[in-house]
Amino acid sequence: MADIENGVITSTRIHLEFDTTVAPNPFQNAASLAILIQPPAGDLPLFTVTGADFGWSGTGQFEVDFETDALNLPIIDFPPDADFALWFVKIFSTNPNTPLLGGQLTNSYIEFDVRPVPAPGATIVLVVAAVVRRRRRPRR
User: Which residues of the chain have pLDDT under 50?
Assistant: First the structure.
């Protein structure tokens, strides 16, 4: 059995669809949309992307797919009895003149690939199996 909580993030894929025109509070400029992602990994990295990073500008419907290795870090080892392990996402406006975020994220998602770490019991079983296999090899 593998332990994902003690694993390592190996890739992050993000799909964003943003519509600035959705009521009741349409958003003024897609370039000012920002998304901050903070997984419980490494030294709690902060990764932020903006609509301007994708060349978005003005109003309407926008879509982008991208992949990053900026979050490729070991996941923090939380105690088994922890109430939660924080995966934080913040969506906000970078424009101080229009701080209210309007519009709508639709069909958007973030995917993390995690390389699991073998559970301690599984590691012991693998070591014992390797020793037994080595002893069973025919001698020449």
Answer: 1-2, 122-123
